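Final report, closing paragraph on structural work. Over the funding period we assembled a curated collection of sequence-structure pairs, and we close with a single example.
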Amino acid sequence: MRYGFDCVFYYVSDVDRSVRFYQEVLGLKVTSQDFVTRFEVGGVLFELVPTTDRGKLQGGGNARLCLAVDDMAEAIADLKKKGVKTAEVQKKHNGLLSSFTDPDGNEICLWQDAAK
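Its predicted structure, as stored:
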């Protein structure tokens, strides 16, 4: 049996609100939309899946969307201008890490590689 990558997805309670967030705050472009909304982020398929199951909307699962940035300070400043609260930037041995949440509490990470 061979397994291949399909996508990363988050459950959301309000698709329209979430699509606006990912488009307006993060600048992602919708690639397709039917029951789910799809974005492509650096060649990776990212989906928003609607649900009314509150258990799926905890925002504390193991999956994270991690976005690469060239300049962490600039990315944080841009998000703050848009009303998004971010976590304190953490220095890691190979870069900088911060995070924020989408409207349903799903964590989104920002990563700046130390080489940049």
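DSSP finds two helices and eight strands in the chain. The radius of gyration is 15 Å. We thank the funder for supporting this effort.
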